[in-house]
Amino acid sequence: MSILFTQYLHPDGRTRSVFIDMDVKTEADAWELIRAGCRFDIEELTTGMISMTCMIGQGEKEECLSIEVVENGPPVIGAVKKLVKDAYIVLGW
After folding, report:
1. Burial bucket for residue 31 (CB in 10 Å: 0-12, 13-18, 19+)
2. What are the tens digits of pLDDT across the range 46-83?
3. How many angstroms separate the CA atoms of 29 and 72, rounded?
4. What is residue 4's predicted lDDT score, i.e. its pLDDT?
5. What is the pLDDT of residue 1?
6. How many other CB atoms are there within 10 angstroms of residue 14's CB atom?
7. Is residue 20 within 8 Å of residue 31, measured between CB atoms?
8. Tens-place pLDDT, residues 1-35
9. Domains delineated in the chain
10. Which spans in the chain are helix H?
């Protein structure tokens, strides 16, 4: 099982679903967050860095639980792990 992210694409913000493979614990925790109403977003910034967020809620009640900005490549894996862990902490789980 992989973690589902919504990827925002340049130049017009089109979206597509992407999956990131992680260790079993991180994937299980991420899917627990998704079942609780969270979503994971990812996009490449104009600087080439990767921005990832864990969001909950919709519209005016939408909140960012955690965010990571890292270089594209191997650092993404550690950032996803931290993104999920930090969202858990914010929710008090």
Report:
1. middle
2. 999 999 999 999 889 999 999 999 999 999 999 999 99
3. 23
4. 97
5. 76
6. 9
7. no
8. 799 999 999 889 899 999 999 999 999 999 999 99
9. 3-91 (3.30.160)
10. 24-35, 75-91
